[in-house]
Amino acid sequence: MGKIEESKMKGDFMQPIFLNPSLQEKIWGGDQLRTTFGLEIPSDRTGEAWLISAHPHGLSTVTQPEAYQGMTLDELYDQKPELFGPDHPEPFPLLVKVIDAKEALSVQVHPDDAYAREHEGPQELGKTECWYVLSAQEDASIIYGHQVTCAEEFRQALEEERFDQVFREVPVQAGDFFDVPAGTIHAIGAGITILEIQQSSDTTYRVYDYGRVDDQGNPRELHLQQSLDVTHFPHEDSPYSRSIQDQAPNSAEELLTNPFFSVQKVDVDQSLTLDLTGPYTLGVVIDGKGQLEVAGNHYDLDLITSFVLPHGIDSVTITGQCSLLLTHPC
Ligand code: ZN
Hints:
The protein has helices at 3-13, 32-35, 73-79, 113-120, 151-159, 163-166, 224-230; strands spanning 17-20, 22-30, 46-52, 54-55, 58-59, 61-64, 94-101, 107-109, 129-136, 141-146, 167-171, 176-180, 186-187, 192-199, 205-208, 242-243, 251-257, 261-268, 271-275, 281-294, 297-301, 306-309, 315-329. The protein is of the alpha+beta class.
């Protein structure tokens, strides 16, 4: 390969890849993805923007650089593996989304990798996730964990509709962070927007849906047996779940590292240079505006700007006044 081609290739590598989200309508969704985040939503019941996704149920699309414009993230992952480092697990491992819960989501639980593979198919991963609360109305709460000791007690209490005695309600405010490993009973409550980082999976086992019906008047399916199979008894709180209220300006704080991903919150008041440690890094702006500097080039950052920093970018500088969540696979 000639010198020029080589440096051109390297040049491609050294650019961030910006993405457009896939938008998902949900019976519990609202209009905040437009009113707060400026996205063009299909209806006022839009629940999720899959910002960084290679999952077939909602693919994000490259907007920049021009060379990859219009490609979906899964196409890029297949056709340009060098952007993602030497390991190439299938499928693409992570998914980053914003959720607008105008109404409460169903009470649910997700399987781990082994259960998902056996029961949902060889390409489906388990779903360990985590949430950063972007906004919460006064008195907002979530369900996080349960209060029973074993599967039998769980089944019996659900049959007798003693939901308050089973589900554990936790008040939330903006800046709270929750670690939600596979097997954790959970539900996002009404009036909350969150940024979710998760394994790339769309397998949800619904435990309870408040007796709601869809547009056709039908209740959504529940998955009691699967829920009993995968729920952890007893519930254990994660030390990673905490409130991130007093982060120092121009700092990066590690929120969580598990076998699947590591998450950092970055707060910039002027300028911060960051060393990147993963094979590649995913980033989303959750507040403010700024600029991203990569290899001497500058890129604008606005609320909800979402990007991949390919393999080979070892450090970036972020300027302006903004907060980001960054994640990389482990
Ligand atoms: Zn979930």
